[in-house]
Design goal:
Layout (H helix, E strand, L loop, with lengths): L2 H26 L3 H17 L7 H41 L12 H7 L2 H12 L4 H8 L3 H22 L1 H16 L1
Length: 184
Amino acid sequence: MSERDDRSRFEAVYRRTYEQILGYAVRRCASPEDAADVVAETYVVAWRRMSELPDGEAGRLWLYGVARRVLANHRRSERRRLTRHTELTAELERLYAPPVHPSGGHDGVAEAMGMLADGDRELLALALWEELDPGEIATVLGCSRNAVRIRLHRARKRFAKALEKTRPSAAGFVSRTLIEKESG
């Protein structure tokens, strides 16, 4: 059979079976997007294996079998993705969760950070958590090094004020540390 004949045959099979295969997938998938992926992959397999595709009613049943295997693969992939997602989330929580103060509460830093504007939080996070210098932060944010220095100075001052509200006993220490960091 020529490629032209294969194409004509494939198009005829597609038109004749598409709604049935789509219905099969929709009834078994969690979302319309997943069903669309299953249907698309089913017809990709059909195109690649045109020489194995039976004629008539047997072809429709063959496509159901392909869709069933594609769906099984999709479900296995989704389970693996969810497992990896759960493992990664647990690892990130373990590594980056704010420390719990011995008295059972947070040390006030997370609460103070929460009081800041998004831009201030991002600047402080880039400087402290990612350990980027002002030049590197300027590259990340797409602004000048001088603008970063000014914005970082202001963000540190606002953070110290916010921390004073959440944990007054730590505010003096943090203010001194931030000032030393800027002058150092």
